[in-house]
C-alpha cells in the first residue's frame, strides 16, 4: 500500500534519512516510534507529499506521493501535531471540505462529534487545543480515507478523550485501510498497534508485527539475574531487573513496547538478530 525506497532527506546540511526503506500494508495500525528528532513527522509528510526527499521515492497506492494526484489526495488524510483552522463553524467546515473525500460519512461524523463532546454549531477558532484535536480526529476518521496519518494524536487530549480516541480508532480500522501513528508517547498508544516501526538516527531499525515479536521474545522482571539463563537485553529496575529472553516455548507473551524500544535503540544486536530470524 505504501512503499518508501532508498529515501534520503536533509534539513540544510544535516542528513535526517540516508537510504531509508520501509513499507506499510493495508489493514494494520502502525506505530512509528522514535526519539525526538528521529524523523517521524518528516516521514509522514513525505508519504503525503508535503515534503520532497533529496533522493529516493515514496509511493502510495501505486502513485508517487510527490505528484499529489486527486485520486491520491482523497485516499489519504494527515492529522498534524500543529495546525491552523479557519474561523468557521464545524458545520461550515464540513460543507467546505467533506466533498473532497468520496467516502465521507456525515452521519458517522456526527457520531464521532458526539463521542468527542463536540457540536456542529461550535466555532473552530473558539476551541481549545484539546477540543480542536478532537475535531480533527473526528473529521479524519469520518473521511473513510484508505490511509490515515496521525502525528502525536494524543497530545492535548485529556485522559477520557484518549480513551475515546483509542476506542474509535480501533473500531474504524478495516481490511482496506491503513493507520500510521507517529508518537513518542508509547504507553498511551501501545494497545492500538499491531505493527511496530522503530526509527533512529535516520535508519529503520525494526519493522515487525506485534504477534511475531510476541512469538520470538519473552519479557519479564526478576529480582536477581540468577533466576534467568541467557538474556538478550536487561535493564536494572527498582527491586531487580527487566529482561528480554528468547522465547523458547512458542507461547505468545505480552510485548513491552517501551522496553523493546530501549533495547533496539540501545544497539542490542542480540534482540535485533533474534527478531530477524
Main pleated-sheet profile: 6 strands, mixed
Arithmetic mean pLDDT? 90
> Segments where pLDDT lies below 50 for 5+ residues?
none
- Distance between the amino and carboxyl termini: 25 Å
Q: Output the number of helix runs.
A: 10
Q: Do you know the CATH architecture of the largest domain?
A: 3-Layer(aba) Sandwich
Q: Give the overall silhouette.
A: globular
Lateral arrangement of strands in the main beta sheet? 6-7-8-3-9-10
Helix content range = 25-40%
Plain-language structure description:
The chain is of the alpha/beta class and 277 residues long. The chain has two domains: 200 residues, 3-Layer(aba) Sandwich (Rossmann fold), CATH 3.40.50; 67 residues, no CATH class. 31% of the residues lie in helices and 29% in strands. The chain contains ten helices and 13 strands. It has a six-stranded mixed beta sheet with strand order 6-7-8-3-9-10, sandwiched between helices. Strands 2-1-4-5 form a four-stranded antiparallel beta sheet, with no helix packed on it. A three-stranded antiparallel beta sheet has the order 11-13-12. Helix 6 links the parallel strand 7 and strand 8. Helix 4 packs antiparallel against helix 5. The longest helix has 14 residues. The radius of gyration is 20 Å and the shape is globular. The mean pLDDT is 90.
What is shown here, in short?
By secondary structure, the chain is an alpha/beta fold. The chain has helices at about 40-45, 70-75, 90-95, 105-115, 130-140, 160-170, 185-190, 210-215, 255-265, 270-275; strands at about 1-10, 15-25, 30-35, 55-60, 65, 75-80, 145-150, 180-185, 195-200, 205-210, 215-220, 235, 240-245.
